[in-house]
Amino acid sequence: MSYPKNFLFGSATSSHQIEGDNKNSDWYNWEIIPGRIRNNDNSLRGDSWQNWRQDIELLKNTNQNAYRMSIEWAKIEPTKGHFNLEAIDNYRQQFKELKKNNIKIMLTLFHFTLPQWVADKGGFANRKNICYFTHFSEKMIEEFGDLVDLWATLNEPNVYVLKGYIEGLWCPGQKNYLNAIKSYFNFIAAHNQAYKAMKKIRPDAQIGPVISVMAFETSKPNVINNIKVFFARQFSYDLFNRLTIKNSDFLGLNYYLKTTFGPKNKSHKKILLSDYNWEISPEGIYQITKEQAHWGIPIYITENGTADAEDKIRPQFIKDHLHWLEKAITEGAPVKGYFHWSLIDNFEWAAGYTMKFGLHTIDRKPRPSAKTYAEQIKKYQQESK
Ligand code: BGC
Q: Which of 22, 93, 126, 194 is 20 to 30 A from 375, comparing alpha carbons?
């Protein structure tokens, strides 16, 4: 068993969560209202907008050959139709530095944040706004198409709809089922339109969506629980995938946890939980990649990680998930890359800085798991030679 040669071993971040300096986005204006974010934290603690070179050093120090990052639409187009050349240049410098170090780039165009002017027009709940996203995507592939290896249009539209339009815990903070349904389908249209427009400019570009997947299971198979599992899969990702697959060169899967329907059995006590109380299941990454292989396009694990402030769980978490992923690949799943979430601790949306997902702390100090990941990458790369 081994990982294919040229397999991408990287980590992932998003602009709003690490960059700081982002006052034109809807999320910034949302998070500064007291009471919305744990400890009233805000994203301005991030400093990667200035100190991105240090992030690239961390990638190099840990043998990573790929980086999934995002660009902040609000920085690039702070007002409608006005593109900020300095911001474009900042990203260009970052991409060039990554290329110089042979680090492949997966670039996400939308990772939960919008320019305030788009949000003011109703964000993704308003179908008329899709054209702005398409235009932004075209502009970005014109600017960066020579440097970016893989394009992720949307990050986890399914989670965004749940948190932002059903639970109301994330920006835009609504509990509005109609807008939830509208934005879900508008995201599908946005992906499809951006894909087609970008392909016209660069037919060889590799473009796909990133969707959150869970290992859904039932502890007691019966009609009701089986139906629950079926609908959970349908609405959280299968429907989205079915309606975008024709316009996707790859499928990005963010996998974190398992969700079990039915009574908790006695072995529940042994279940490993992250600081977020998410149930950790390394086999789940195997299950989900095998299951999603049927679409017949390459798969990237675009996020996988755990909230673990003390780094007690993470080293073994990394080993176990890489082991199960290798098994899926050996059995034919077309997985081309794995991105650990995250390179450094970051602004964890409504949880502020309380949840620590980083291989490195916010001051960029490596946790023991950074070494584990580096060793695992080296080991797998040697085996694949
Ligand atoms: C998101 C990240 C987030 C991570 C951990 C994913 O839902 O894409 O932005 O930080 O999970 O919660």
A: 93
Task: Indicate the top mutation candidate among 348, 354, 355 to test ligand 1's pocket, ranked by most ligand atoms within 8 A of CB.
Answer: 348
User: CA distances (Å), 360 to each of 64, 174, 197, 245, in order?
Assistant: 14, 34, 37, 35
Probe residue for ligand 1, chosen from 72, 236, 341 as the CB with the greatest number of ligand atoms within 8 Å: 341
Residue 303 Cβ inside 6 Å of ligand 1? The answer reads: yes
Is the pLDDT at 108 greater than 80, yes or no? Answer: yes
* Tokens (6 digits) for 153: 């249009």
Spacing, Cα 349 to ligand 1 middle (Å)? 8
Spatial separation of the C-alpha atoms in residues 284 and 308, rounded to whole Å: 19
d(CA 255, CA 232): 15
- pTM > 0.90: yes
How many other C-beta atoms are found inside a 10 Å radius of the C-beta of residue 1? Answer: 10
What's the number of CA atoms in the CB half-sphere (13 Å) around residue 192? Answer: 13
Enter the tokens of residue 306. 């755990």
Q: Could you read off the pLDDT of 146-200 as tens digits, one per residue?
A: 999 999 999 999 999 999 999 999 999 999 999 999 999 999 999 999 999 999 9
- Residue 285 and residue 73: Cα distance in Å, rounded? 31
C-alpha pair distances (Å), 112 with each of 71, 233, 296: 11, 22, 28
If you write DSSP's letter for every residue of 242-266 in order, what string do you get? HHHGGG-SSEEEEEEEEEEES---G
**How many Å apart are CA 25 and CA 123, to the nearest integer?**
12
- The answer, yes or no, to whether any atom of ligand 1 lies below 6 A from the CB of 22, is no
Per-residue pLDDT reduced to its tens digit, 226-274: 999 999 898 889 999 999 999 999 999 999 999 988 887 655 567 899 9
Identify the pLDDT of residue 217. Answer: 87
CA–CA distance from 48 to each of 19, 122, 284, 299, 353 (Å)? 4, 29, 32, 28, 15
